[in-house]
Specification:
Shape: globular
Largest sheet: 9 strands, mixed
CATH architecture of the largest domain: 3 Solenoid
Number of domains: 2
Structural class: mainly beta
Number of strands: 25
Strand order of the largest sheet: 1-4-7-10-13-16-19-21-22
CATH superfamily of the largest domain: Hexapeptide repeat proteins
Strand content: 25-35%
Order of helices and strands: EEEEEEEEEEEEEEEEEEEEEEEEEH
Radius of gyration: 18 Å
Length: 215
């Protein structure tokens, strides 16, 4: 076993867990789950049967990931955020064979106490604000706020709202300097392939959000 499991955590049989993953207090990983490398599962988290999770995924305290959910690499799930797998649940109606699929794509952030209604896709590097309720699929890099959630601009890979444009009209991240091109309601990073990880020298934050905001 090349992952860390706290003594209070429960990991069922027939589970695949990658190297250097950490599973903390009172967490439960159910049978059939597949988890990648270097993930962190905080206190009171749950991964249901047959859920697939990529590498470098951070799941904060009190998050349940239900059957039907697929999470790609580098996703952040904030404390007590909510995922679902049936749109119209009723206690008297069994729908275990009708679980709806939710896809959370690479690099996405779901803020604390946000709710993700099932059957949708969160695009790459999308950013769901704390407390938002997302009931429809969102595009890559979208910054979503409110109840129901609506798009309030674009968010860079480093988690900054993109406002400043260069001489070519491209949006520029204040932290990385990466440029982004907006076209027909979609955003793409000019500097890096959407599936490529961040360069090592850009994975360590050096300033707080407010310091970048002020400057």
């Amino acid at each position: 076993m090349n992952y860390l499991k706290h003594e209070t955590a429960i990991v069922d049989e027939n589970v695949t867990i990658g190297d250097n993953t950490k599973i903390w207090h009172f967490a439960h990983v159910c049978s059939g789950a597949v988890i990648g490398e270097s993930c962190v599962f905080g206190q009171n988290t749950m991964v249901a049967n047959d859920v697939k999770i990529g590498s470098n995924v951070k799941v904060q305290n009190n998050v349940a990931i239900y059957t039907g959910t697929t999470i790609e690499d580098d996703v952040f799930l904030g404390p007590s955020c909510v995922l679902t797998n049936v749109t119209n649940p009723r206690s008297q109606v069994k729908r275990q064979s009708l679980y709806e699929e939710t896809l959370i794509r690479r690099g996405s952030t779901v803020g604390a106490n946000a709710t993700i209604v099932c059957g949708i896709t969160l695009g790459r590097y999308s950013f769901i604000a704390a407390g938002a309720v997302v009931a429809k699929s969102v595009p890559d890099y979208a910054f979503m706020m409110g109840v129901p959630a609506r798009q309030h601009g674009w968010m860079s890979r480093h988690g900054h709202i993109l406002k400043v444009k260069d001489a070519e009209g491209l949006l520029v991240c204040p932290e990385s300097g990466f440029r982004y091109k907006e076209n027909n309601g979609e955003l793409n990073c000019v500097e890096l392939d959407e599936e490529a990880p961040l360069p090592k020298n850009l994975t360590e934050g050096l300033k707080t959000y407010d310091e970048f905001k002020i400057n």
